[in-house]
Amino acid sequence: MRLQLSPEDEAFRQEMRTFFTTKVPQATRDAVAARRDVGREQYVETQRILNAAGLAVPHWPVEWGGRDWTPLQRHIWREEMQLACVPEPLAFNTSMIGPVIAAFGDDAQKQRFLPATANLDIWWCQGFSEPDAGSDLASLRTTAVREGDEYVVNGQKTWTTLGQYADWIFCLVRTDPTAEKKQRGISMLVFPMDTPGVTLRPIELIDGGFEVNEVFFEDVRVPAEYLIGEENRGWDYAKFLLGNERAGIARVGATKRLLADAKQLATEVRADGRPLSEDPRMAARIAELENELLALELTALRVVAHSTDGKPHPASSVLKLRGSELQQAATELIVDIAGPLSLASFAGEDSQVPEWARAATPEYLNYRKVTIYGGSNEVQRTIIAGTILGL
Amino acid sequence: MRLQLSPEDEAFRQEMRTFFTTKVPQATRDAVAARRDVGREQYVETQRILNAAGLAVPHWPVEWGGRDWTPLQRHIWREEMQLACVPEPLAFNTSMIGPVIAAFGDDAQKQRFLPATANLDIWWCQGFSEPDAGSDLASLRTTAVREGDEYVVNGQKTWTTLGQYADWIFCLVRTDPTAEKKQRGISMLVFPMDTPGVTLRPIELIDGGFEVNEVFFEDVRVPAEYLIGEENRGWDYAKFLLGNERAGIARVGATKRLLADAKQLATEVRADGRPLSEDPRMAARIAELENELLALELTALRVVAHSTDGKPHPASSVLKLRGSELQQAATELIVDIAGPLSLASFAGEDSQVPEWARAATPEYLNYRKVTIYGGSNEVQRTIIAGTILGL
Amino acid sequence: MDFSYDDEQNALRQAVSGLLGRAYDGEKRRAVVAADPGFDEKTWAGLAEMGLLGLPFAEERGGAGAGQVEVAIVAEEIGRVLAPEPYVQAVVLTGGLIDAVATDAQCDELVAGLAEGSLVPAFAHAEPGTRWSTAAAGVRAVEEGGTWRLTGVKEPVPNGARADVLVVSAIDEAAGGATRLFVVRADAEGLTRVGYRTHDGTRAAKVELAGTPAEPLGEGADDRTAAIERAQALARIAYAHESIGAMATALTTTTEYLRTRKQFGVTLNKFQALTFRAADMYVSLELARSTALWASLVAGAGGDVVTAADRARLQTSRAGRHIGKDAIQLHGGIGVTAEYTVGHYTSRLTAIDHVLGDGDWALDRLAATVGDHETVDPLGAPYT
Amino acid sequence: MDFSYDDEQNALRQAVSGLLGRAYDGEKRRAVVAADPGFDEKTWAGLAEMGLLGLPFAEERGGAGAGQVEVAIVAEEIGRVLAPEPYVQAVVLTGGLIDAVATDAQCDELVAGLAEGSLVPAFAHAEPGTRWSTAAAGVRAVEEGGTWRLTGVKEPVPNGARADVLVVSAIDEAAGGATRLFVVRADAEGLTRVGYRTHDGTRAAKVELAGTPAEPLGEGADDRTAAIERAQALARIAYAHESIGAMATALTTTTEYLRTRKQFGVTLNKFQALTFRAADMYVSLELARSTALWASLVAGAGGDVVTAADRARLQTSRAGRHIGKDAIQLHGGIGVTAEYTVGHYTSRLTAIDHVLGDGDWALDRLAATVGDHETVDPLGAPYT
């Protein structure tokens, strides 16, 4: 047992911190810090800067740009990135389809897709969920029928995040409707979003923003070479993909930033003639949240230290569960600090209400999603009860 | 709609308040106020005082001592009793077996039992739960086999509260083990605790006290005249009994006393050189609890106002659920006010630690039971979800 | 003591529910809140026709002379369908303040105009530097040659852009820094209003006053913070009922979803962890409902309405957060979309929670006086 | 950074677990705590033989020179079986205080005696008028003719009746009201000790000093509150680990019960509302465990141990209440009986929670300094 980072890891942390705070454009980091939407261009620009420095896909195989880092180094890399308000490399590319292709794709697919995926030359989106298959993913109904050298895809996907920016989609489709177990007849296909028959409908969220979409497939013809791995083994790849890279899900660095902002804002808002930060109950609320976040961070470090075999640690569910709750608690805290100012949510630039207070409630409402997506917290409790506690 | 009590109800409240605070011995009320154990004699003495004044069984039929009060009057009667620290009439007598005998017993049983039950000349205890039938009461296994004019009872009951004081027991027993539905083969028998074959084993609780017992039956011969109502209809009587008189389960008056005590004690304990009551977070904790108790009391009053048809209002489950939680929160509050003093729990009279602080943790531990007994809070949530929300 | 609605009250509820139900069934609310002024002028006229906009005011002032319980019924039905009409702001808060403070002549115009639907008033009170205060801070009132002029910024002002007339609070240094109230007309010189949509689909505005001529509300130079406190308290109580209505719909929407949505081959109501959470939502709702109802009765009984309002606000704030969050969570992904209704309920509950003091704010006030009484008797002093 | 136990540490855990597991399997604990001194002298001797009572002290003082992590391992195993031996009180708190303050000669007797098991010390510090303070209040120390005499009452003093020697805190008016420390022998004149059982089965005492002769601990008349603060912080960290051990057993006892107990024809683990609550208990436990472990490492790294201890205390207090309550609730009736184990775990967790400051107390201290840092870096200043 040792608390301190080794000199090498300490140097690594400094290196990351310096890189993120000096090489990523300030304007982009300011946008993240102010919790404004980051546009497609800023994502792409940032990921290319990271990729050029070997910092976009460190967890990939070395031959495709990976770095062979320790789990702790990957953890430091991610936390420093969040602390520095750097938009993270697109998860659909770097944590999802990239590793799947690297593990299960054929050589042609690897050559074609991996470099472009790491560099965000291709923007990927995910076609997994369907209207009647949410947490129960295996019930999906989108079909792909083989006709010669092509699959003909029909059906509908939903919750496709940032689909409006995407060049390609990776999809789970049913290729064998007769399979005894519904998980067995599923395959993974990839194809361009501009393939004829693909249409996209943005879904407005309760914060007024657009980040998820429905995607419809009507006789979409996909060349058979775009099948990833073997036919009818898509469920295995999906499980591999969803279990991959759980280390980042605690989002400790991002929540730390929210909390640090909240502390600062509480000194700026006055209540009853003194800074709100001096209200004993507000101070205690912040201190308790900070302590819970510390506990989460330490748990993430413990998990990191025990995940050398590459498999997700069962306690990853704790990280997702608690991490999402703390993100929500931090956004709620900021709404409460804004108080009456939070009602000016969509005021324009000439408003006297500061930008952070206007953004507070839409962000709070938007963050209701974090306990739902990525395996809802009910799913996480099921995993903990079943896998860890044997119930 | 009207907030104020009618002049008649206001006068009734005054009458109750005056009676309880002047006619019940101060020593008994002091013991309740100090949350000391009340002994058998004090219970009996109090109930006889109440009964002599017609205040022990107001909800019974008038011919057996009932008063034909409105539900609101019954509510006021009970709340004022709790506020005045009067030990309530024994529930096993007045809310459980008494009403069952009044409704389903034969004339001989009524004549024999009801006056003695109201006056606590007979102290009743309950034989319902069994070691393998807790919330799942219908699975009970104690048998009663008819032999001539007698039933022969064998089996075991548990959680028999104050069984050590009891003269008689009312029991659910299985008289038809072949019944298709397990609820159908159950009957209700009553018999003296000193019948040969009855043995009682006290169960120590985590606070070191003894209030519940196991009761064992070995070839206990019970005259058939002690069957209540019809054979094999005991389940109906049990449901009648358990649904009866739910109004008191919120225990608002008792929790009000706990909170009032807590407030006073917080002014007496000093922390960092000032009364603990002036700590902003302690004051807020008390104020929030007080507000939740107000909400509960108002809900009880709403339920009372709508329960004229005699059936328990479905929202009774809310009263039990929240009432038990607030009782526990109040006892936890008192432990926290005691702080380090709470560690002197079983110190003697010469201790410098005040009596209330010594009693705090044992009481807190004992009160863990209130979310378990009387239909656990899980059962109440099941009722709310099923009966009220249709889930 | 009687907690039951009488026949007239039940009829009132049915009438309001009929009007609003027709106005906002299905997708209609989304279309209405998409365009300024963020509510439906026809529905507003319908409320006026039914006499609801003058409900709490005396008949001789053009009102219906009804009580707090009737106002609560309207507010609850507003909440039940998330009707965006500014009932609590215009009628209870601003109208109540005018009714309490204004001269008879002012009432003849303003209260009557409000009641008949021809005049929508708004209370311009909050400022970026204040926090749920009864006093003004940065806006100043100065008299020059018999004309009062106001200078400063009010923001956010609910419905401030649409309002036909603004009641503005301002500091009068000549009166020892008292907070006074003034009437400002929509067409007054030096008045700039920039309206915007808020997250819950309603509207607010930045109201800039630059030497804007104004008419004192009522007579005398008295400090009006007590009147503001009382009007805010009544508005908090009405908002508590609006919240109750919204929570009730959020809960029934959720239970309906649990009964019909299938996952893993069964409907969601087969998952006990979910149904127990719905049960807890019901508990929160009923406890909040009891407190809100009681606070309305306290107002009617002439009791300590400010404390009663704080109690109702604390309870509904806690319940609103609990139910708003869990309603979305139990729905899953669809709950965060603007195309489905439940998220809008959460959004509105969040807005109401922050408009006149949130739960922690109310708790601070209650905590400050918790030592002043041994127990709370809801049927006794100081509440009746 | 490395959060894994090494082979020696694992061996230590196994040895302690073996000793305590044998001592307290089945019903043995109930018998031991039923009789004075509330713990098993033979087990205490066993701990001494294993070198555990001298674990944190330097070898030249008769100790083992081990670190905080080793102490934490022992405390966790103590908690796991609820061993009633006063390990944290005698070794970590009182022993730590002696080790930090005493003269070499005093250490030669007291630390060595503690380590070899021949001398059980107790820290007599709390008074009815103080609340988790580092200072004494009512007990006074006066020097008369070269002899120090103490007067006043200490209560509750954990293990105060059994202790062979008491370390007593007292106010020295002659030193400007400084809190100083003194050694009082069991047989000193004017010393009255009345011991009693506490709810968790351990023992405490009222200790009355009436001009009782005492020997100053250490040299000089310095105020010792800083040393007390540090020793209490280390004790809080050790108690955090004792709590972790107790919570872990409470949770496994509960999950085992859910797997085997039948209701309505099925085992309880078929009820999702119950298994989800068990999952939440696991989350609380693991987060508390991380924080406790970290606090031990901070102590070892020479970081700000007082703040780290407050952080560990806050987290374990919350977790201990959560797990202690739900462990009983998920058991139902059997959980509140003294005949079944789980309630004793709740009782012990409640006692630990109140012995050196509860969660809210720790939170108050953390809240007072929350504005002093932008973020908490567990691997950086001031913790490493």
Keywords:
heterotetramer; A: 391 residues; alpha+beta; Butyryl-CoA Dehydrogenase, subunit A, domain 2; Butyryl-CoA Dehydrogenase, subunit A, domain 3; 4-stranded mixed β-sheet; 4-stranded antiparallel β-sheet; 15% strand; globular; C: 384 residues; Butyryl-Coa Dehydrogenase, subunit A, domain 1; 3 domains; 7-stranded mixed β-sheet; two-stranded antiparallel sheet; 11 helices; AcylCoA_DH/oxidase_NM_dom_sf (chains C, D); Acyl-CoA_Oxase/DH_mid-dom_sf (chains C, D); oxidoreductase (chains C, D)
Could you explain the architecture of this structure?
The complex is a heterotetramer, with 2 copies of chain A (391 residues) and 2 copies of chain C (384 residues). Chain A folds into 3 domains: 7-89, no CATH class; 124-231, Butyryl-CoA Dehydrogenase, subunit A, domain 2 (Beta Barrel), CATH 2.40.110; 250-388, Butyryl-CoA Dehydrogenase, subunit A, domain 3. Helices cover 45% and strands 15% of the residues of chain A. Chain A has 12 helices and 10 strands. The longest helix of chain A has 26 residues, at 280-305. In chain A, 52% of the residues are buried. Chain C has 384 residues and is an alpha+beta fold. Chain C has helices at 7-23, 28-34, 41-49, 68-81, 87-101, 104-116, 225-260, 272-301, 305-331, 342-355, 359-368; strands at 121-124, 140-144, 147-158, 165-172, 178-185, 191-197, 203-216, 262-263, 266-267. In chain C, the strands form 2 sheets. In chain C, strands 1, 2, 3, 4, 5, 6 and 7 form a 7-stranded mixed sheet that branches. In chain C, strand 4 and strand 5 form a beta hairpin. Chain C is globular. Chain C binds chain D through residues 271-273, 275-276, and chain D through 271-273, 275-276.
